[in-house]
Inverse folding.
């Protein structure tokens, strides 16, 4: 058996890697480590991509898998994504995971060429293959809780939603948020805005666009803003904090993110999507020789989605907490079904 010494090293522009891989006589894990290809915004977005990296780190810590994570480049094509996924698979990384639906075409094309490698695609379930795991979530359930929290916390009965890109995935966030808010206050006023029509226009990677949208919604009267906008959400949060109103984060527990520490007093909570857990579970399954495949969907019942309650100010708002807890139980029990459109 060969055992690698794990060490984080630079691996060129936008990349990092850990030495990894072990092979043994029992046929257990023989890959080179996890191959992780980031979505737009890259590592450091304090949201979606960082959530994926947390799963990479956990698997590395527990199984000494190591691996390599690679950033996207500005203005890249689908062919660039195919090349990146191919590069990881050719190098022996297993599993190879595309962080975000934008990798679906690349995963579909490359997975056929490497049938002995397990691939994962986050936020897409269109790729159907024996060696592909579709890692998806009931985002609308977490967003429903965000809507309940927003409707209970607003002083003006006026809140806002800011989506990064106008696509069906983000429509799920909006649908859940609106339904949750209206379950508390049917006549609540809700501002809604999408930053761009396509991801290539920077909707998930432009804090300035998030800041401008937040400024407009605050001017219109909203006093709680929920974003589903990746890196752009940092602009939403900073603007909300500057105007001393509540922001609700997404994907990661944004209250606890170091890069957002100066704004945390104004982060009411975050609609969580356990992307890190999905990455970890897939890596673990490959390490144990029983790779997951097909649709793997996280929901409130499984802990795949949730609402972060880290902020002590949130915990002190007992009526808000009680309403969110009640809504969570109703969804788990099936007495409430959350809209996806």
């Amino acid at each position: 058996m060969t055992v690698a010494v794990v060490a984080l090293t630079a691996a060129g522009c936008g990349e990092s890697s850990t030495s990894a891989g072990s092979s043994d006589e029992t046929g257990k894990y023989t890959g080179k480590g996890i191959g992780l290809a980031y979505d737009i915004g890259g590592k450091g977005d304090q949201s979606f991509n960082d959530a994926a990296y947390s799963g990479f780190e956990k698997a590395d810590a527990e199984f000494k898998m190591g691996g390599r994570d690679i950033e996207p480049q500005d203005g890249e094509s689908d062919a660039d994504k195919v090349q990146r996924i191919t590069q990881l698979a050719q190098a022996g990384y297993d599993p190879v995971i595309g962080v975000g639906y934008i990798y679906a075409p690349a995963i579909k094309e490359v997975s056929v060429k490497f049938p002995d490698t397990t691939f994962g695609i986050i936020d897409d379930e269109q790729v159907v293959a024996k060696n592909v795991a579709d890692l998806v979530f009931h985002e609308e359930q977490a967003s429903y809780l965000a809507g309940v929290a927003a409707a209970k916390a607003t002083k003006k009965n006026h809140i806002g939603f800011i989506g990064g890109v106008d696509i069906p995935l983000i429509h799920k966030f909006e649908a859940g948020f609106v339904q949750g808010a209206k379950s508390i206050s049917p006549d609540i006023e809700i501002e809604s805005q999408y930053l761009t029509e396509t991801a290539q226009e920077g909707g998930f990677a432009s804090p300035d666009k998030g800041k401008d949208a937040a400024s407009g919604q605050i001017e219109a009267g909203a006093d709680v803003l929920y974003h589903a906008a990746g890196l752009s959400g940092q602009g939403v949060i900073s603007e909300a904090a500057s105007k001393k109103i509540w922001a609700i984060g997404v994907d990661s527990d944004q209250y606890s993110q170091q890069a957002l520490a100066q704004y945390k007093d104004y982060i009411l909570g975050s609609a969580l999507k356990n992307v890190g857990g999905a990455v970890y579970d897939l890596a673990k399954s490959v390490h144990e020789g029983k790779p997951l495949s097909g649709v793997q969907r996280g929901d409130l019942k499984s802990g795949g989605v949730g609402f972060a309650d880290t902020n002590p100010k949130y915990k002190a708002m007992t009526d808000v907490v009680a309403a969110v807890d009640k809504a969570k139980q109703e969804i788990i029990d099936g007495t409430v079904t959350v809209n996806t459109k």
Notes: The two ends are 52 Å apart (CA to CA). Residues 1-13 have pLDDT under 50 and may be disordered. The longest helix spans residues 168-184. DSSP finds ten helices and 14 strands in the chain.
